[in-house]
Design brief:
18% strand
């Protein structure tokens, strides 16, 4: 992987590298199959009440955390309550926006009560950021030594160099093929290609098709897989440089300009699609600007002149906050 995954508690994870690692260590309540259909995982698919406000989950029997403790409804309730708690600043909190309460009537049953019907609720429970953690292990401990129910368990970490895992003998999904798994931190993609060609690493993930093509040899097979990703430009709203509303508006308007913003590429089976994403609005100014969606990248009427007028407000912003290319 290209960066050291430092976010080792599921609901704190934002980086791709952390999620790649956590996906080997933890398990969410539900999962997606290769057709993106919600399927059972730690729990069977839920029984939904007629009014759509109650979801009852039956947990699988015999599931254990890698530390050896049983995974019960108490752990599910603990995890969901933690995600719902604003104090945790969970990245997955939005998945629980419609959740009123979570009950654990017995060790193998979880009942989630919604405030309003929410058809997308179960999809959120497939995300690695909603993975279940043990209720009897302090969060601070999990941030240095993860304890999940995934196919592998944590062994050791050498910061900025590697992370070592071993097969989880208690994995509910059955015995996995590899007995040990090591993630090496290789920031440079060409160095990663060289490591793959030399055989010092066996698997590498590239999001750049050009780089991936250079890795192809008689001994290295490159496969293209479907990926659903959203790329955004996230601005640090707490930065003193962004305390001025006009600076924030200038950045937002630059993002809405034709040909500006963050270009993203979605790769699928032998097809490519490029599109532009506007800069993420920050602060309360979202309603101050026209909705860009109907224009499909053609620009918003009048926004170019407004961006030019406000641009001086952004002229002195440091590079990491505004990409001026």
């Amino acid at each position: 992987m290209t960066a050291d995954p430092t976010q080792l508690v599921p609901w704190t994870s934002t980086s791709v590298q952390s999620q790649q690692l956590l996906g080997q260590l933890y398990s969410p309540l539900l999962a997606l199959d290769n057709q993106s259909k919600v399927i059972a995982n730690l729990a069977d698919l839920p029984q939904v009440s007629g009014d759509g406000l109650s979801y009852t989950f039956a947990l699988k029997q015999g599931v254990k955390f890698s530390g050896g403790s049983d995974l019960t409804s108490k752990d599910v309730k603990y995890t969901f309550d933690k995600i719902k708690d604003p104090a945790t600043k969970a990245t997955s909190a939005s998945y629980f926006a419609s959740v009123a309460t979570v009950d654990a009537p017995d060790p193998k049953t979880v009942v989630v009560h919604l405030k309003t019907p929410d058809a997308s609720f179960v999809t959120g429970l497939t995300n690695i950021n909603t993975s279940i953690v043990p209720s009897d292990v302090p969060v601070d401990s999990l941030s240095t030594k993860p304890d999940g129910s995934g196919p592998f368990q944590f062994v050791s970490r050498n910061p900025n160099e590697s992370i070592s895992l071993k097969r989880n003998p208690n994995y509910f999904g059955g015995k996995v093929g590899a007995g040990n798994l090591t993630f090496r931190i290789i920031p440079d993609k060409q160095a990663m290609v060289s490591a793959l060609k030399s055989g010092s690493v066996q698997v590498a993930i590239f999001d750049d098709p050009v780089v991936a093509k250079t890795a192809t040899t008689s001994k290295v097979e490159v496969k293209t897989v479907d990926s659903l990703q959203i790329h955004v430009l996230q601005l640090r709203a707490t930065s003193p440089d962004l305390s001025d509303v006009n600076r924030r508006l200038a950045i937002q308007l630059r993002g809405l300009s034709p040909g500006r913003g963050q270009r993203s590429r979605a790769r699928g089976r032998q097809h490519h699609r490029s599109y532009y994403l506007p800069a993420v609005p920050i602060g309360p100014e979202r309603s101050a600007l026209p909705d860009p969606r109907p224009h499909q990248g053609q620009g918003v009427p009048g926004q170019g002149r407004r961006a030019q007028r406000l641009q001086p407000q952004a002229d002195h912003l440091p590079g990491p906050i505004l990409d001026r290319r």
